[in-house]
TrEMBL record:
Residues 1-30 are annotated as: Disordered. It comes from the Bacteria. This is Heat shock protein HspQ. One of its GO terms (molecular function) is DNA binding. Gene3D superfamilies: Hemimethylated DNA-binding domain (2.30.30.390). InterPro entries: Clp_protease_adapter_ClpF, Hemimethylated_DNA-bd_dom, Hemimethylated_DNA-bd_sf. The keyword Transmembrane does not apply. Residues 19-29 have a biased composition (Polar residues). Keywords: Stress response. Residues 38-139 form the Hemimethylated DNA-binding domain. It comes from Croceicoccus marinus.
Length: 144
């Protein structure tokens, strides 16, 4: 009908208001995420993968999956995590090498071993490892 408009039911409007979006270069576009996402770990925390033998320090957090579709599809379907949870960027290490990992919250646990991570990029983002807190602190210039 010309000149009319459709009222959005209250529940639909609140659902629209409860989400936000951001651009992800890795995803190649805009990603929708809840306005409030609860991350279990913080930047500087040391974590361990619950299935694979590696540990790492968190240097960035995405509120939901924000990587490429190709990356997501490369995970075996039986092990594929849900998209609507925090994903963590890690400076990671195992016994053979250091690398950058992208891991879902459901696959991370507290490290429990303690001690610093041996990764060549840590010094670009973090200061010294804090023995008392067992975590890294962001360089002052990178803090908000």
């Amino acid at each position: 009908m010309p000149g009319s408009f459709r009222n959005i039911p209250r529940q639909d409007a609140s659902e629209l208001d409860s989400r936000s979006s951001f651009f992800s270069p890795q995803a190649g576009g805009t990603v929708s995420a809840p306005k409030i996402a609860e991350a279990r770990f913080a930047i500087g925390d040391i974590v361990r993968h619950r299935l694979h033998d590696f540990r790492g320090v968190v240097f960035d957090i995405d509120p939901v999956f924000a990587n490429s579709e190709e990356w997501y599809e490369s995970i075996p379907s039986a092990m594929r995590p849900t998209r609507d949870q925090p994903f963590y960027h890690l400076f990671a290490e195992n016994e053979e090498s250091s690398y950058i990992a992208y891991v879902s919250q459901q696959n991370l646990v507290e490290d429990g071993i303690g001690g610093p991570i041996d990764h060549p990029s840590i010094d670009m983002v973090f200061g010294e490892y804090d023995l008392d807190d067992e975590r890294y602190t962001l360089h002052r210039s990178l803090r908000h």
